[in-house]
Amino acid sequence: MALTWVLVLGPKGEDEDEEVFVDSKFAESAGMTNNAFRVQAGSLRFSIKSGRKIISELDVKITKRLKANPFEVDLSDPEKTPPLD
């Protein structure tokens, strides 16, 4: 799969950047909220957690995008992010 750019928006009321985990791989974060980062294109699960508790999680099909126009994943309002097909 090709690498692509995503921008993950955190839950409402969370102004500071949070670590974002992809596909429940909690050993290492993939990036931070409010900052574009690269992931493999395809069907992915994005998560934000605090300690052992998952704060927000969403399954999304990510398409190829450029850094200037990253695919937006909105964990504050899942209705804004296109769901998996």
Please tally the β strands and state the result: 7
| N-to-C order of helices and strands | EEEEEEE
Integer average pLDDT: 84
Q: What best-fitting shape do the alpha-carbon axes yield? A: globular
Indicate the percent of residues in helices. under 10%
Give the spatial strand order of the biggest sheet: 3-2-5-6
- Give the number of domains: 1
**Class by helix and strand content?**
mainly beta
Number of helices: 0
Low-pLDDT windows of residues: none
Q: How large, in whole angstroms, is the Cα Rg?
A: 12 Å
How would a crystallographer describe the biggest sheet?
4 strands, antiparallel
Instruction: Classify the oligomer.
Output: single chain
N- and C-termini, Cα separation:
18 Å
The fraction of residues in strands falls at over 45%
Short synopsis of the structure:
The chain is mainly beta. 0% of the residues lie in helices and 47% in strands. A four-stranded antiparallel sheet has the order 3-2-5-6, with no helix packed on it. A three-stranded mixed sheet has the order 4-1-7, with no helix packed on it.
